[in-house]
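Reopening this one. Same input as before:
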Amino acid sequence: MMTVTNAAKKVLPKGTRRRKMAAWTVGRVKRLLIKPPGISYEKWITDIEPLTISKNTNHKYIPKISIVIPAYNTPDKYLIPMIDSILNQTYENWELCIADGSTSKVRSTSIKKQAARDDRIKLVEVSENLGISGNTNMAIKIATGDFIAFMDHDDLLAEFALNEVVSAINKDQSIELFYSDEDYITENGKKRLLPYFKPDWSPELFLSANYMAHFVVVKSQIIKAIGGLRPEFDGAQDYDLLLRITEKKPVIYHIPKILYHWRQADDSTAKNMNTKSYADDSGKKAIKEYIKRNNIAADVLSGPDDLPTNYRIKYKIIGSPKVSIIIPFKDKAELLKVCVASIIKKSSYQNFEIILVDNNSQEPGTTSYLNKIGKHKNIHVIEYNKPFNYSAVNNFGRKQASGELLLFMNNDMKVINDDWLEELIGVAIQPEIGAVGGFLFYPDRKIQHAGVIVGMTGTAAHVFRQLKPHTLTFYRYPDWVRNYLAVTGACLMVRASTFDKVGGFDERFIICGSDVALGLSLHESGYRNVFTPYAKLFHYESQSVGSYNNIPPSDYDLSMVRYKKYLEGGDPYYNPNLEIMSETPTPAGTYGQ
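Same output, byte for byte:
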């Protein structure tokens, strides 16, 4: 199925963060020929970032924030700018708690000198270096703030960082954990680069990588209740801490602003992850402890391309749940033949049935193929002799399905990896998960689907489309497991009971839009939708339905109504600093529009 893209009947409502667009023509929607490209990060910093900064400093609630830093032989070229960035904060009710484990008297003396610059700076000297966790815990012990903020000894805070946190606290005092967007600064501190514009809280993404990392601020009582950092996880001590915190289901808030500048120092993982190769092992250990504590049946593996500190949770399948693979089609026997053959020959998981829903096929070649393939014990051919309606034909197929899991597929697909079904099943059987979508590719192996962003190009679109796998973007990698509001119906697995609970596909959508509507229904019912890059298929997009010009205008009208909340308020799994009119994540040329 196609996702509604590149269309709006009229200018979107005032106050949205979408660019104005008009692509409506009578009887059809004209695809945009030119996509706004976004702007460079340098231009974003000068033109857009000032617009994002909160000007309010007259807060009713003025909490103290304790910034904790473990120092170790910190050179002045890092130490002084770091302390300057805190002294320059526009919010003043803070304290800086430094635990110094330096072995160099010169460095220790320098830290003492810098600590004397302001009464709000506290220094505890650690007689024996206790490592990252031990030193940080010493800093936490002398902290008296309502919140604890974590910072490295060679990095910088944006001068408005603490004020943004306090502004958020004043809007909602139930928030217990904050994290922000971040970027890198060069070793000499003269240039900012590689921003990471993050999504709102995404549990599945967090198990792929510690994307929260910087800038993290947590209620003090939570830190003290769970016992602080654990030295046995040094290298990924913050990841372990956050895993232990997030499993308690705190109120988490993402501040979509660059509050932290991570220095690319020579010995920093910001410049070369291999400088702390133990961080990867510690991260795996932290996740293993997490899944053990939470009774999750899974293995922890390296992430895509074996990139350090990127991880893969490979869920174990308990029992052998049956999968009903539902494939609507009309003729195009050669396409269907390739699709079905790839499922049968490639799939290492065997407990499935294929339900082929014939929608008014007429070609002799189709009849011949169906007569032959219908003899296969796991394949059932049923007829839906009504005008084509993607939602209705799939709902009809579901009624004939006997599996615990439903897998909706287009007929223009071809399986790539043998364990694709195991991957989809492993994620889909987790109780909090709704729909699961796969990693789909064009024949040239560029990305066709790696998740759906609502609002992108006007209604909804596939982020990362036409990029290559492993491409680093300002939204980071397309190969990470992520949460989305929706995934494409071209390859969508969901538990049958969950599908039925939300009412299946909305049959008012004729060709496109109902996969996104299904995702929204699941999301609004409390389920998380997931994209997994470990179920790979080719998708020969729209070869059976036809071009986008065949989409009825009613599908766009319905989409604009159904998606309205997210068109106006934004997709929580994207970032308002990214250009919403481009499928390639780049900095936006406007903010809040």
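So the earlier flakiness isn't reproducible anymore. For the record, The radius of gyration is 26 Å.
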